[in-house]
Amino acid sequence: MKKVLFLAVFAMIALTGVYTVITLYDSTMKVGRMNQTPVLRPHEEPLLVMDKRLVAFHKSEKLMKEKLMKENYKNMFPEMPTGSLKASLTKGEKDYQTFCSHCHGVNLDGLGTVGQSFFPLPANLTGKKVSDLRDKEIFSVISYGSEKTPALASSMTVESRNAVILYVRSMQKNAH
């Protein structure tokens, strides 16, 4: 009987210790938990199902890029928005949080909740390498992807992509 009581008390102490360690770890983490990112929240409305005859499902972004390259390279990258700067920055921040922060992180440092599991880590958007890129190059990476970056041309509007670039540029100025 004493053994059973001793094991029960020991198990309770061990579980309390594990719970305390996990709670302390979560409260001192540099980044949030994966289930707290806006991208991972369940959809409020059911997703629409596209008719397969309307959209090229396989390599659609690549096909779009090839078509645009053949037609007119200059029109491939629209100019930055000329509307209200504050409104564009607000939209850019919102769209960055929705589409980019889970990999690139809230602080644009490549330490997002999903991106931490990648090797190498996602690009530090406030670093010199990205700061030296032209807006058109960043637009191209957002639109058509790169080695590890997904293509978002079919998910984000042109206005959204430009607003994200404007937001990233403003954060780069604040970081330096």
Characterise the protein shown here.
The chain has 176 residues and is mostly helical. Helix content is 51%, strand content 0%. It has two domains: 2-30; 43-175, Cytochrome c-like domain (Cytochrome Bc1 Complex, Chain D, domain 2), CATH 1.10.760.10. The protein has helices at residues 2-28, 60-71, 85-99, 101-104, 128-131, 135-144, 158-175. The chain is elongated. It starts with a helix and ends with a helix.
What attributes does this structure have?
176 residues; mainly alpha; Cytochrome Bc1 Complex, Chain D, domain 2; 2 domains; 51% helix; elongated
Give a quick summary of the entry:
Helix content is 51%, strand content 0%.
Furnish the topology, listing elements before pairings:
Elements: H1 2-28, H2 60-71, H3 85-99, H4 101-104, H5 128-131, H6 135-144, H7 158-175
Radius of gyration equals: 22 Å
Q: What letter string, H or E per element, gives the SSE order?
A: HHHHHHH
What CATH first level of the largest domain would be assigned? Answer: Mainly Alpha
How far apart the termini lie comes to 67 Å
| Mean pLDDT, all residues | 80
What is the count of DSSP helices, taking H or I runs of 4+ residues?
7
Structural class: mainly alpha
DSSP helix fraction: 40-55%
What is the CATH homology-level superfamily of the largest domain? Cytochrome c-like domain
User: Which topology of the largest domain does CATH recognise?
Assistant: Cytochrome Bc1 Complex, Chain D, domain 2
The low-confidence runs, each spanning 5 or more residues with pLDDT under 50, are none
The CATH architecture of the largest domain can be given as Orthogonal Bundle
- Main beta sheet: none
Shape: elongated
Domain count: the total is: 2
